[in-house]
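README: folding subset

This subset contains proteins for which both the sequence and a predicted structure token string are available. Records are stored as plain text. Below is the entry for GNAT family N-acetyltransferase (193 residues), shown exactly as it appears on disk.
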Amino acid sequence: MVQPVPALPAAFPALHAPHASILKDGTRVLSRPAVRADLDEVNGLYRRCSAESRRARHLTHRSEIRPHEWERMVDVRKAITLLTATTTTPDEVIAMTNLIETDPPGCAELAVLVADAWQRRLGLGTCLVRYAASLAVLHGYSTLTAEVGATNTRMLAILRRLDTSVPQNTSSTVSITVPLPVRHAHHDEKQRR
Ligand SMILES: CC(C)(COP(=O)(O)OP(=O)(O)OC[C@H]1O[C@@H](n2cnc3c(N)ncnc32)[C@H](O)[C@@H]1OP(=O)(O)O)[C@@H](O)C(=O)NCCC(=O)NCCS
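--- output ---
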């Protein structure tokens, strides 16, 4: 019988390679795993975001990421955090993507924050959600979840395209569950041959 691969606790080698994407206007961006020393850059992103965007990301008023939260976001045993910058201005973070392991086992919660100047129809949020979903599969997660504001049409549109049925909202937030394809050990074995 084919056994699903359990979630991988350690950072996967592929995760360390920056992931390149080209936005709809031709801008080249790289998304790389965050490290503990990146907190100032991340809070720079938060300062460049509107209060509305930060609220949409956290579903509450937020002005920054606190050190104890950051520790959790960069703990590679339970989280994957990606920072995105353009290839021309690599020091300015324009987006952060978080996958954080949650209960029950095999679930990872997804959240994305794109700086206001980079939002809307350039496709950055779409690229990041798709890449995060592929990383979640690679790490053996079976389910992606997201808590999204009921009026957040952009994020809901992105998630809808991940082969998920977005439930009708019954409150101010929508809880999304995306089943992920299971990575099978025998398939990986075949790939290696
Ligand atoms: C939600 C968010 C991640 C989306 O990222 P983005 O880069 O702005 O989105 P994209 O450019 O990929 O657009 C996604 C889709 O939303 C829809 N969309 C984009 N702009 C829109 C607008 N002005 N009006 C209505 N729909 C719009 C479209 O369907 C679009 O895709 P398409 O143009 O290919 O059809 C980003 O706006 C963001 O960070 N917002 C604040 C934080 C947040 O809401 N996070 C999500 C909660 S976890």
